[in-house]
Amino acid sequence: MLYFISTPIGNLKDISYRAVETLKEVDVILCEDTRHSLKLLDFYGIKKQLISYHKYNEKERIAEILSLLQENKNVAVISDAGTPVISDPGNVLTVALRENGVNYTVIPGATAFVPALILSGLDASNFTFVGFLPEKNKDKDQVIKNVEKHKETLIFYSAPHDVKNDISYLYQKLGDRKVAVVKEITKIHETAYLGTLSTVDIVEPKGEFVIIVEGFKGETESGFILSEKEHIDLYISRGYSKKEAINLVAKERGVSKNALYKYTIEE
């Protein structure tokens, strides 16, 4: 059997009895970084064969993993922290296992975005998990285009060297929404920075970050809360030309472009 096992995201005690027992019983453990995982395994006195399994070799490892399972070996998959597959290696493997008719199971546990969402104080009834933003701007733009009008809370992951740029980018594309930026979850320096995308101040960008952004509030049941001009200016602030902004606003508000003509001649 193959087990996807969640590991602590900070505090080494945040792991289930079942997870520890399973790690002690399996024959092989696939680790994102064997050196990092040894800290956890040593803490619980677990000594097993470790195989590196990360985003750069996960495709190449498939045949080896399938071979181990055919030999009736019990295999565990863990990432550096949290739940494998969720913004971590593993999805390639789940696809291969299903394609080959191989059963597997999951031992649940810590996932960073859940406590971050709770710590944010923002709406947790509905949310969209986006994960890490792509590196290239054109890819980022496509991701944001897909979620910018979502009314549910948006959740992003961010590395310490990217977090300030990510916040600035989200402000540029989404406007000045409420935000919570949470770092070092479950650790001694756990912090939730609260504010808006234009005002939130990250004092020390160290550790892994989760950015929780308020959902789209541009419309209400009674209509738009933005005036026509504010609506156009919002799109212009996101990098659209005035003509493009007017076309988008006309389409979203269900009015003709001619109805917004006066804004094309304003200075």
Walkthrough of the structure:
By secondary structure, this protein is of the alpha/beta class. It is built from nine helices and twelve strands. The strands form three sheets. A five-stranded parallel sheet has the order 3-2-4-1-5, with helices on both faces. Strands 6-7-10-8-9 form a five-stranded mixed sheet, with helices on both faces. Strand 8 (178-183) and strand 9 (191-196) form a beta hairpin. Helix 3 packs across helix 4. The protein is elongated and about 75 Å long. The model has no long low-confidence stretch (mean pLDDT 90).
How does the SSE layout of this entry go?
Elements: E1 2-5, H1 17-25, E2 28-31, H2 34-43, E3 49-52, H3 58-70, E4 75-78, H4 91-99, E5 104-107, H5 113-120, E6 127-132, H6 137-147, E7 153-158, H7 163-174, E8 178-183, E9 191-196, E10 209-213, E11 219-220, E12 223-224, H8 228-237, H9 242-253
Parallel strand pairs: 1-4, 1-5, 2-3, 2-4, 6-7
Antiparallel strand pairs: 7-10, 8-9, 8-10, 11-12
**Alpha carbon gyration radius:** 23 Å
Low-pLDDT ranges? none
How would you sum up the global shape? elongated
- What structural class should be given to the helix and strand makeup? alpha/beta
